[in-house]
Structure prediction request, 286 residues.
Amino acid sequence: MGLSRKIASAHYMTEQQSIFACPVCGEKMKITDQCVVTCENHHTFDIAKQGYVNFMTHPTTSMYGKDLFEARKQIIESGLYAQLHHTVVELLQSFGRDMTVLDTGCGEGSHLAKVKQQFEKTMDQKMVAVGIDIAKEGVVAASRNYEGMIWCVGDLAKCPFQKSSFDAILNILSPANYTEFKRLLKPNGWVVKVVPQSGYLYQLRELFFADSDKESYSNAHTVERFKENFSDVTIKRITQKVVIPQNLVPMLMHMTPMGWHQTTDIDQTKVKEITIDLDILVGKLS
Ligand SMILES: C[S@@+](CC[C@H](N)C(=O)[O-])C[C@H]1O[C@@H](n2cnc3c(N)ncnc32)[C@H](O)[C@@H]1O
Ligand SMILES: [Zn+2]
Prediction:
């Protein structure tokens, strides 16, 4: 890696310089020859050797660590979310032109990398892809693994970007901040939020919560809030059952919500198939 990744990243970010806003004072930012992102008031943020920028203005601890993000990468690469990627790409391609896309809560970046790659493969359209996550370990992994994209450590509730910078905001299985999303979207922009449906990973839920009401899940409240905030809302459900290799089952458990880890004597060999059941909510600025 070394210097070249950092410099390549600085070059790429310079081309997109106008999207950045200082997380301290809100002013415009520029990227210097020294690979520093700086505003007119001299608030500075270094581009790391892996190519990402840490825009956090105060330290945070995340419950997501390096192992979890490595697990998540392997799961996503196994093809478990292939249908999700396909559907999101088709949707974005219907936009009909080049896009600047922000993935909020991008984790280790595999979803965004796949979406960009597939988006650019089949059509004559380019995507500027920007990922932000509060977990530094995730963003470090993203920038190590995926070049030609912009990776930021930051809080999605206070994004270091100018208003009206993005054609689409992705928000996949992550918390949202609709006030911030509306600020960041261009006038004709779209929000694409992915939330679990009732059958999501149900084989794991059955193992953990046999005979308990936690076994079922409803996203009704989330859908309701989304509809209050955006217009022309459409919902597309994707359901896919995948035979999962035994060695990925512990990793899947690893990336599920924390409460699911409490039981120790789980027979993982029982899990042979996994169901992906998701709603893709798409909305526009109202
Ligand atoms: C369940 S993970 C999903 C990650 C990724 N989208 C995926 O599907 O693999 C939720 C992510 O949201 C991130 N996150 C939580 N709160 C955040 C915040 N305030 N700002 C940015 N990211 C946040 C976490 O660090 C974590 O990476
Ligand atoms: Zn500043």
Observations:
- Residues 22, 24-25, 27, 39, 41, 43 surround zinc ion (ligand 2) (CB under 6 Å).
- The radius of gyration is 19 Å.
